[in-house]
Design a protein that fits this description.
It is built from 11 helices and 15 strands. It is an alpha/beta fold. β14, α11 and β15 form a beta-alpha-beta unit. It is globular, with a radius of gyration of 18 Å. The N terminus is likely disordered.
Length: about 260
């Protein structure tokens, strides 16, 4: 097996590649994916079943295709408009945690992007991000240093992911990471798709402090993929009270809760 194929031995990274390839091709056979990734057809079938269980792909004879609509959930623009006022308040509260000259990481997602929007115009620190909307916004902040984490574009998330992103992130450090999520409960933070995990985990691993940003709609939402428990979240910024179970989990792990 070649060194190139060996790169895809990790299941989350294989599934990231599968989803990116499906977005390009629309349909791929098990044989095609097995050859591309250098793993057995049985391994590919397991990956496809996992993606199908999450609603990200449609299993068809001999392979998989994107489900109708192809996005696996509401698009970035519609998510940005949903609970927009709450997200702006959370972004402003999160930006108050940033110190002059800080190095911060900004995750993909609409709420995390609001933290970047709320940075002072004269912010002279460094922003590290794989979010395309954040990179576009930071063009208007010439005093800030901006490091874009490259990779393959996920259209639905408007984020760059993959091996190029992970290799770069591992050589960095941030004081604060503004982390996004699709849902939050007493067990922790969740996202809709496993393809988001690798970049989130890599950013969390280089952060001195992980700051989860979640409007109250996320506290009653459901998403299938667990990112982390409260023990990995140093600060949670929300716009309203937590449900009792989540509040208890935050107290137990020492997670600070800030209300915007």
């Amino acid at each position: 097996m070649s060194g190139e194929a060996m790169r895809y031995d990790g299941a989350p990274l294989r599934r990231t590649h599968i989803m990116a390839a499906l977005r390009r091709a629309g349909f791929l056979s098990v044989a095609d994916l097995s050859a591309q990734l250098g793993v057995s057809p049985m391994t590919i079938r397991r990956d496809l079943r996992r993606l199908a269980d999450n609603g990200e792909v449609l299993l068809v004879h001999g392979g998989a295709s994107l489900p109708p609509g192809g996005a696996g959930g509401p698009g970035y623009t519609s998510r940005a408009l949903s609970h927009a006022d709450a997200k702006r308040k959370i972004g402003v509260a999160a930006a108050r945690l940033v110190q002059p000259g800080d190095t911060i990481g900004v995750d993909s997602g609409t709420t995390a992007a609001e933290a970047a929007h709320a940075l002072p115009e004269d912010f002279d620190g460094c922003v590290i991000t794989h979010s395309v909307p954040v990179l576009a916004h930071m063009l208007s902040r010439p005093k800030s240093r901006v490091i874009g984490i490259g990779g393959e574009l996920l259209h639905d998330n408007q984020a760059l992911v993959g091996f190029a992103a992970l290799d770069l992130v591992r050589r960095m450090r941030v004081r604060l990471l503004f982390l996004g999520a699709s849902a939050v409960d007493e067990r922790g933070a969740y996202v809709r798709s496993e393809v988001e995990l690798s970049a989130k985990h890599a950013l969390m691993d280089i952060a001195d402090e992980v700051v989860l940003l979640a409007d109250t709609s996320k506290l009653t939402a459901s998403a299938p993929v667990l990112v982390c428990g409260f023990d990995r979240i140093d600060t949670l910024v929300v716009d309203g009270p937590l449900p009792d179970a989540a509040a208890t989990a935050a107290r137990r792990t020492g997670t600070r809760v800030l209300t915007a």
